[in-house]
Amino acid sequence: MLLKGRELRTTQLHLLCYNLFAFHRRTMVPPNENGASPKLEGKHAAIIVCWLLGNGCLFPWNSMLTIEDYYVYLFPRYHSTRVLSLVYQPFALVTIALLAYNEANINTRRRNLSGYILFSVSSLAVLVLDLATSGRGGLGTYIGICVTAAAFGISDAHVQGGMVGDLSFMQPELVQSFLAGLAASGALTSTLRIFTKAVFENSKNGLRKGAILFYAISAFYELQCVLLYAFVFPKLPIVKYYRAKAAAEGSKTVSADLAAGGIQKTTEIVRTGFDSNV
C-alpha cells in the first residue's frame, strides 16, 4: 500500500510538471528580429487605432442626431427628431441579426470594410444632398435623409459587431479602447457641433453653413477610418499575431485579414510566434 501511494504521488507530480511545462510553452512567444514579442509590439498604436475606429463607428449617426436643429428648421412638418431614429433602428437590428446568423461564414475584413465605406459614402451623400438642393426642404430631400439614416443603421450593424468580434481574439485592452471610442463619439460630435455653430453664428445662413462644415468633417473622418482599417490596423504586429493565433486555432473568418497583414501560409502563421501544435 505504501509503495502504491508513492507511485500515485509520483504520477501526480509528473502530471503537474507536464501541465506546467505545456502552459509555459503555450504562453511563451519568441521575440522577433527587434527583440520584442509580437504579442506586445505595437500595442499602444493598436489601442489608439481601435479608439479611432470605435469613434468612427457612431460618429456619422451622432452627427445626424446633433444637427437635428437644422433638420427641424428644414423640415418643420415631418418630425425628423422622431422619424430618423425609427428609420435607423430596424435596419440596424435586421442587418445585425442576419450577420450574427451567418457569422461563421462571413469574411470579417470585408464586413468591416463594407461598413466603414458605407459610413463614408453615406456621410458624403448627406453633404451632397444639401448642396444639390441648395438647402431647400421638401419631401424628396427628407426621403433622401431617411435613406441615409437607414444606411447608417446598416453600416453600424456591419462595423460594431464585426469589430467587437474581431477584437475578441486579441487583448482586452483593444476591445476596451474600441468601446471607449464608441462612448466618446457623442461628446466629440457635440463639441464639434458647438464649434461649427460658433464659427458661423453671425453670418447669413449660419445654421446651414455650420451643418455643411460639420458633415464635411464627418465624411473626412470616416474616410480616415476606412484607410486605418484597410492599411494600418492589419499590419500592426500585435494584430497579426492574434489573427494568426486565431487562424491556427481553426477560425475561418480571418484569412483575408492575414493576407492584408502579409501572412499567406501556415508556416508564416507559426513564424509569427504561435505554434498551433502546443
Structure description:
- With 278 residues, the protein is mainly α.
- It folds into two domains: 45-233, MFS general substrate transporter like domains (Growth Hormone, Chain: A, Up-down Bundle), CATH 1.20.1250.20; 236-278, no CATH class.
- It is built from eleven helices and no strands.
- It is elongated and about 60 Å long.
- The longest helix has 29 residues, at 139-167.
What's the short version?
Keywords: Membrane, Transmembrane, Transmembrane helix, Transport. This is Equilibrative nucleotide transporter 3. This protein is mainly alpha-helical and 278 residues long.
The SSE string, one letter per element, is HHHHHHHHHHH
Helix content: over 70%
Helix/strand/pairing class, anyone? Answer: mainly alpha
Overall, the morphology is elongated
According to CATH, the homologous superfamily of the largest domain is MFS general substrate transporter like domains
Number of helices: 11
Total number of strands? 0
Q: Which architecture of the largest domain would the CATH scheme give at its second level?
A: Up-down Bundle
- And the CATH topology of the largest domain? Growth Hormone, Chain: A
Would you identify the regions where 5 or more consecutive residues have pLDDT less than 50? 1-6, 8-30, 274-278
Distance between the termini: 37 Å
Radius of gyration: 25 Å
Major pleated sheet: none
Mean pLDDT: 82
- The domain count comes to 2
CATH class identity of the largest domain: Mainly Alpha
Strand content: under 5%
Organism: Saponaria officinalis (Common soapwort)
Transmembrane segments: 45-63, 83-101, 113-133, 139-157, 178-200, 212-233
Pfam family, one: Nucleoside_tran
Membrane topology: Multi-pass membrane protein
